[in-house]
Hints:
The chain is of the alpha/beta class and 394 residues long. The protein has two domains: 2-200 and 377-393, Rossmann fold (3-Layer(aba) Sandwich), CATH 3.40.50; 215-370, Glycogen Phosphorylase B (Rossmann fold), CATH 3.40.50. Helix content is 46%, strand content 14%. The chain contains 16 helices and 13 strands. The strands form three sheets. Strands 3-2-1-4-5-6-7 form a seven-stranded mixed beta sheet. A three-stranded parallel beta sheet has the order 8-9-10, with helices on both faces. Helix 2 packs across helix 16 (378-393) and helix 7 (152-166) crosses helix 8. The longest helix is centred in the N-terminal third of the chain and has 16 residues, at 19-34. The chain is globular.
Amino acid sequence: MVLDLSRLLSRVLHPTPTGVDRVEMAYARGLLAAMPERLRFAAIHPTGLYGRLPRERTIAFLDATEERWHRQGAMPMRALRSAALRSLWALRPRPARAAPRDRPNLYVQVSPNNLTRPALIDTILRREQARFVCLVHDLIPIEYPEYARPDGAALHRRRVDTIVSRADGILTNSHATLAALQPYLDRAGRTPEIRVAHLGTEPISALRPEGQRPYFVCVGTIEPRKNHLLLLHIWRSLSERHGPHAIPRLILIGRRGWENEQVVDMLERCPALVGCVEEKGGLPDREVQAIIAGAQALLLPSFAEGYGMPVTEALTLGVPVVCSDLPALHEAGGAVPEFLDPLDGPGWTSAIMDLAGEHSAIRDAQRQRLAAWHAPGWSEHIAILLELLHKLGA
Length: 394
């Protein structure tokens, strides 16, 4: 079993992880625990070379990466660059050993890295004599090109074509993602082994900060499909009516993405948001978890989602969730969250005002429903993966 770690190697200069980074790490940890003797690591190195990665050095790299993600203070850029260079030198690719002809390798890739280069993927699969297993996160750039970069739809279509035409096994993170992928498989006339495996949530224990002014939190890259503009207009209206210091704060956690002129203009130039809206990016995991734990609620007014990890993380901490009425978010949160249309400004305002109060009907109802909710775990996801791998390798 060969696990591709190209994504994590490409992110050695980034102090905090994206969702895809976390998934690749979870696969590495889960498969190391489940099949330590059979697991091998490989990557397309940032130098452009492909090959196997030395095992012990790879494990040390995984340890160091997780330590960087969890570190409380920001790592100085000079130290980050030095650590990155050491890691890249230690993880120089080695040639792969060919698999026995009667038992091919299984090559697993969970990130979109390099899927726009089908000829390269073909070369890797030939060199590894491997069957190809992929995790599909979403088809959002194709379904909603208006929320992607100008070339995003075309690039993602190439990734999907690579998966559809080559994968022997496919996992999707939700039934919603599978429904979006199925027409491409039907048109190609291919029937790979397919499983749906919801993304796991790590056990979280974060202390709720005391003595702070009440606040709400929104987690995710600041990009058009996340619909931050709705929340900013609500907070501007509340601030103009009551004053910026008499209302709960809104904390936006996430880096700035693309095509965000209106959102950035409001964040930087709207006087009514000063003192009541705070933007935070590049935070270590513990600080993000602590902020979520102390929030009145997590707000997620997205127009499109492939799954919804912030929803599961908030519910794991017992924090109420108000999110868009999307199939993927129903899969993530079950019956617990308050589901609203992402364009229903009055509905969102009403829910926010209810949750801002000391006595909240929405909060009480969600606490009751939370008792029947099960947080998805990575052990369950990896078990589904192992069943798929066993079937393909049998």
